TrEMBL record, chains A, B:
Pfam families found in the cross-reference section: GntR (PF00392), UTRA (PF07702)
InterPro entries, per the entry: Bact_HTH_transcr_reg, Chorismate_lyase_/UTRA_dom_sf, Tscrpt_reg_HTH_GntR, UTRA, WH-like_DNA-bd_sf, WH_DNA-bd_sf
Organism, scientific name: Streptantibioticus ferralitis
PANTHER family: MANNOSYL-D-GLYCERATE TRANSPORT/METABOLISM SYSTEM REPRESSOR MNGR-RELATED (PTHR44846), MANNOSYL-D-GLYCERATE TRANSPORT_METABOLISM SYSTEM REPRESSOR MNGR-RELATED (PTHR44846:SF1)
CDD domains for this protein: WHTH_GntR
SMART domains according to UniProt: HTH_GNTR, UTRA
Domain of life: Bacteria
Signal peptide: none
Keywords: DNA-binding, Transcription, Transcription regulation
Protein name: GntR family transcriptional regulator
Length: 251, 251
DNA sequence: CGCGTCGAGTTGTACAGCCAACCTGGCCAC
DNA sequence: GTGGCCAGGTTGGCTGTACAACTCGACGCG
């Protein structure tokens, strides 16, 4: 039985418990979960709440579900939450790596055409571009070029240049990244990339372009990250209806 | 008002209608959706059903949602359904490209260690490996190495070597790919890749490794696809809770 | 003019119930 | 043995209700 503390929805707490149970191997891999009705009774909630919790696990690819038979455990829990997939810092820490980096450049300038479309700005409005190198345990792995609309850029520009994370302070200032659209492909290093990552000009890099909006649907960031090959891989899960993204290291 | 025909769940039909409405610009980009209660009335269903429909749209990144205010339209509809993200053939067709390809090699052999783990096989069990080149409008863009457990491999091996799609006939045989886990990174062309794709040995390729299971949680495919840079990009969307994957061309 | 308060509107969470669709295993007839 | 049938168990789909949490504009006060 779980007690409501009002700070987190019941179904999320139930989901967390189930996730833990799966990670502990309480049901075995390929094993079966108890029926929804049974779970409802043991957790002292209604079946609807259990179904909400299970929908979260299903979106993470932890369990299957189909009509007529009990849910099957697909794999062990991935620790990463959504926020870790957006924040390089938290993601790295969750892997036991020590994230680092430095701000190479901060530029304020009028938005170009692509930026105006992505950030939904009018002609002539300014953006703030931050160029950073990011490291894992000291070794450079990624170049990040983030473009922010002005009001957010102000916050970023005033951060300690040595700050490891920009996401955390931004969230503390009330900036939320709730909807993120990623595009992943391959590109090739330009002179700056080569210099910052210590690779050759023209070497292949794994590119992630990221477009984030806040809960109101207002664009808050447009970023292009370039990773050295072999340092990270992106993992995505999708079921027939819902899916989940995470990032993992390949070092 | 939508009529139930019993072949598709109401909430999916409502979702499809809303998707269409968004694509048609009925609500405008950045505009607001009607309230759940209003939608429930216009479609003649309960609010719960509307919420199920909206959950689908949210997972696709089409709308935001937060407490206290109406949903905001984030972007226009992406046509691609989940199945298109798994089937190269359907994906290509949905873009107006003509997919093609040829089977280069079919091998039956004992599963190696990785394959045994991915397909959950016992030592000594055989797998069927299919090596294919896939083309878009005639140009080779991808090398696919798919490994199937025996009983599925039998079906694949008996397909017409000129068959464009393997997924479609497999589904007709009752093989379903409901849960798919993707890993995306960069790798480098070996001699076979270079030969088949017409690139140089050691050239960078975008790699997608794919692990699919059926509704019962049984592994059905373990595949490694290698794309020429610049031909495709993977796009992923995630909201705080749910996410959606699609693939798009960059040609 | 700026500021806080208030209230209507809206989504989130949770409960209870009902039936349909479907899977599984056991039983029975052949 | 083999195949079909049936009953029980289980999830999917849908409805209805209630309240909590939150947003945002209107309004009034200083």
């Amino acid at each position: 039985m779980i007690v409501a503390d009002g700070r987190q929805a019941m179904y999320r707490k139930v989901a967390a418990e189930l996730r833990q149970g799966i990670a502990d191997g309480a049901y075995g891999s390929g094993g079966r979960l108890p029926a929804e009705a049974a779970l409802a009774q043991t957790y002292g909630v209604s079946r609807g709440t259990i179904r909400q919790a299970l929908a979260l696990l299903r979106a993470d690819g932890l369990v299957t579900s189909r009509r007529g038979t009990r849910r099957v455990v697909l794999g062990t829990a991935r620790v990463q939450t959504f926020s870790e997939t957006v924040s390089f810092t938290r993601w790295a820490r969750s892997l036991g790596e020590e994230p680092g980096g430095r701000v190479v450049d901060v530029v304020r300038r009028p938005a170009d055409e692509v930026e105006r479309e992505k950030l939904r700005l009018a002609e002539g409005e300014e953006v703030c571009m931050v160029l950073r190198v990011r490291t894992l345990s000291g070794a450079p792995v990624m170049v990040e070029r983030s473009v922010y609309p002005r009001h957010i850029g102000e916050i970023v520009a005033q951060l300690d240049p040595a700050a490891v994370s920009h996401t955390v302070p931004l969230e503390e200032q009330g900036v939320q990244f709730t909807d993120v659209h990623h595009t992943i492909d391959v590109t090739f290093a330009d002179a700056d990339d080569a210099d910052l990552l210590g690779c050759g000009i023209g070497d292949a890099l794994l590119r992630e372009r990221r477009h984030s909006t806040d809960p109101a649907g207002t664009p808050v960031e447009w970023s292009e990250d370039r990773y050295l090959p072999g340092t990270v891989a992106f993992t995505v899960h999708n079921s027939s209806a819902t899916t989940g993204l995470s990032r993992r290291t390949t070092i």
